[in-house]
């Protein structure tokens, strides 16, 4: 039978006099250790279960009253819900798991042949920069099923053949750099797909810092950080639904996700920060634009710069 410390004993963690099993100073469980394996397993499951009562209440609150979790956490009633940190960690891991399961890629550059029975042709534009391709679908895909290979070999062959037959050095370098650019785009796609989910942990504090000038400089940074974790939870939740839909063949684009995300953002910010609907809307839109252009876009350019072949770029620029 497990032993209990006497009421007069001091907490071994902080030294406060005990009035029971749990220290009222630091919350330490002072029950004697070690405990039976059965009790340890039950506690471990309780800490990691996704279907306990608190999780159910948390998900219901986020779905129907997106501000409730934030208000409860701020007002000291957060014990009824899972902590923002735990929810954020769980949904991040779930998002990565769904991506692996579904074969959906956050970002990829694709150049694929439209009709395999028709020829692919390439022509250098007189501007020295553009290459015109026929029978080729080129573009940047977000949250779509992975395409293998991302650049069809027939495209590479057609561009190389056009470069070999080019009438001048300018057109030849333009066509050669088209293939080089395609190779670089594939590398950039792979690095972004691997980098973006992990970078969220580094970029989230910047997300919170950008909330301060729009939603209250006098608030504690931790208040903004809690809101940032909630906002990322909602974004990941929507992207999980999109990934599952595209896994089933929907092929939906990613940009419409911004509208329900902004709607939830505004609904939560209105109550959490005590704003009107209009004020929460324009501040939420401004925050989204600032985050995209001041944080995500520069970070993406840094990743892209690591994939550039400077010698090939130099030859292309000199020919132009």
Report what the structure shows.
- This protein has helices spanning 37-48, 53-64, 68-74, 84-102, 153-164, 169-215, 221-247, 258-272, 277-305, 310-319; strands at residues 104-113, 121-124, 131-134, 136-145.
- The termini are far apart.
- The protein has a two-stranded antiparallel sheet with strand order 1-4. It has a two-stranded antiparallel sheet with strand order 2-3.
- The protein is mostly helical and 320 residues long.
- The protein is elongated and about 90 Å long.
- Helices cover 59% and strands 9% of the residues.
- Residues 1-7 have low confidence and may be disordered.
- The chain contains ten helices and four strands.
SSE map:
Layout: H1 37-48, H2 53-64, H3 68-74, H4 84-102, E1 104-113, E2 121-124, E3 131-134, E4 136-145, H5 153-164, H6 169-215, H7 221-247, H8 258-272, H9 277-305, H10 310-319
Antiparallel strand pairs: 1-4, 2-3
Helix pairs in contact: 4-7, 5-6, 6-7, 6-9, 6-10, 7-8, 8-9
Compact overview of the structure:
The protein is mainly α. The chain has helices at residues 37-48, 53-64, 68-74, 84-102, 153-164, 169-215, 221-247, 258-272, 277-305, 310-319, and strands spanning 104-113, 121-124, 131-134, 136-145. A hairpin with a 6-residue loop joins strand 2 and strand 3.
């Amino acid at each position: 039978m497990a032993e209990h410390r006497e009421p007069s004993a001091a907490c071994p963690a902080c030294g406060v006099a005990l009035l029971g099993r749990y220290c009222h100073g630091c919350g330490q469980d002072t029950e004697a250790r070690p405990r039976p394996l059965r009790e340890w397993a039950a506690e471990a499951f309780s800490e990691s279960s996704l279907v306990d009562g608190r999780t159910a209440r948390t998900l219901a609150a986020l779905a129907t009253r997106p501000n409730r979790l934030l208000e409860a956490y701020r007002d000291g009633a957060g014990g009824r819900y899972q902590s923002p940190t735990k929810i954020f960690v769980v949904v991040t891991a779930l998002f990565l798991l769904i991506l692996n399961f579904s074969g959906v890629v956050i970002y990829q550059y694709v150049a694929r042949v439209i009709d395999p029975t028709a020829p692919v042709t390439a022509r250098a534009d007189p501007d020295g920069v553009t290459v015109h391709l026929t029978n080729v679908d080129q573009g940047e895909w977000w949250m779509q099923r992975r395409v293998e290979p991302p650049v069809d070999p027939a495209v590479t062959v057609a561009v190389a053949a056009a470069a070999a037959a080019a009438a001048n050095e300018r057109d030849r370098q333009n066509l050669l750099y088209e293939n080089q650019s395609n190779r670089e785009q594939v590398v950039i796609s792979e690095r972004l797909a691997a980098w973006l989910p992990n970078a969220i942990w580094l970029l989230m504090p910047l997300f919170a810092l950008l909330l301060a000038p729009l939603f209250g400089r006098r608030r504690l940074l931790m208040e903004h950080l809690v809101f940032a974790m909630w906002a990322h939870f909602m974004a990941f939740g929507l992207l999980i639904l999109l990934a599952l839909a595209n896994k089933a063949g929907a092929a939906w684009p990613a940009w419409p996700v911004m509208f329900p995300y902004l709607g939830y953002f505004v609904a939560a910010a209105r109550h959490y920060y005590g704003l009107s609907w209009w004020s929460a809307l324009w501040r939420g839109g401004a925050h989204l634009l600032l985050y995209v252009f001041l944080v995500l876009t520069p970070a993406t350019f840094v990743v892209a710069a690591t994939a550039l072949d400077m010698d090939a770029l130099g030859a292309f620029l000199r020919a132009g």
